[in-house]
Design brief:
Layout (H helix, E strand, L loop, with lengths): L9 E7 L3 E7 L32 H17 L6 E5 L10 H15 L4 E6 L7 H9 L2 E5 L5 H8 L8 H8 L7 E5 L1 E5 L2 E4 L3 H14 L3 E5 L10 E3 L2 H12 L5 E3 L1
Parallel strand pairs: 2-3, 3-4, 4-5, 5-6, 6-9, 9-11
Antiparallel strand pairs: 1-2, 7-8, 7-10
Length: 258
């Protein structure tokens, strides 16, 4: 069974296919997963594995560990493109998320002023004003939208709350007035006997309509790259992703295919 991927609060740096040399921040437990989605493709596994025993790191712990890591990287002459909030679940669920973001920006400015600060979020906490404020302060506010059609959305992302629907997420994304990046995972397969395919004309057209409303800086589209908790999934190959990207670009939206 696929289980948690990140066993440290500060991890890496690793090479991200979308962001470059990335130092990760995991605001969720190091031995469990806490997320408001339970995506069939999540590289950190399903939520059923539990939250573990380590708990979420405090603001002070994150600040100290990041400062120490950045200092060590500077002393070693290492390079850094981005500091990325990711990890074993949804980072914006952390109760001190905004304060931690402000700390990270200050530490970035001190040690690696040319590096970007990125947040990978599933968009479910955008009803919280402090989360919106924090996301407006980072360089790369990367927000998930895998389907604009409710049944597909529910099958792929499996939100833990019935109140989370694509229409609501789209409305929340519109609040950023373009200061966001939308990230969409394309895939095909099956989960619990239900077929999954968000590459159909109907799905792509619905996503394009949503992108137009959101008007993001860009849309990142990608497919499976690592082991997934649901084994019956198929990666969409690069040529097909590029064809989808051209359809999106034809609607006047900048697209990054990775």
């Amino acid at each position: 069974m696929q289980t948690v991927l990140f066993h440290q609060t500060i991890f890496g740096p690793i090479h991200s296919r979308r962001l470059g040399v990335s130092l990760g921040i995991n605001l969720m437990p190091n031995d469990g997963k806490i997320c408001s989605f339970d995506c069939v493709y999540c590289e950190a596994g399903y939520n059923a594995q539990g939250a573990g025993k380590s708990g979420i790191p405090s603001r002070d712990t994150v600040k100290k560990m990041l400062n120490n890591k950045l200092k060590a990287m500077v002393e070693a002459g290492e390079s850094l493109d981005v500091i990325t909030f990711s990890g074993n679940g949804e980072p914006t669920l952390h109760p001190q998320f905004k304060d931690i973001v402000l700390d990270v920006i200050k530490l970035r400015d001190r040690h690696f002023p040319n590096a970007k600060v990125s947040v990978l979020s599933n968009s479910t906490m955008l009803k919280k004003e402090s989360v919106i404020d924090a996301l407006k302060k980072v360089d790369n506010n990367i927000l998930k939208l895998d389907s604009a059609i409710a049944p597909t959305f529910r099958t792929i992302n499996q939100p833990t709350s019935n109140d989370v629907i694509p229409e609501g997420i789209i409305a929340h994304l519109m609040q950023f007035n373009g200061k966001c990046i939308v990230q969409t995972m394309f895939l095909r397969g099956e989960h619990n006997g239900i077929k999954i395919d968000n590459t159909t004309d109907t799905e792509i057209n619905a996503l394009i309509d949503a992108y137009k409303k959101i008007a993001p800086k860009e849309v990142m589209i990608y497919s499976i790259d690592r082991k997934t908790p649901e084994e019956n999934l198929t990666k969409i190959e690069k040529d097909e992703l590029e064809a989808i990207g051209k359809r999106i670009e034809a609607a006047g939206i900048k697209v990054i295919v990775s």
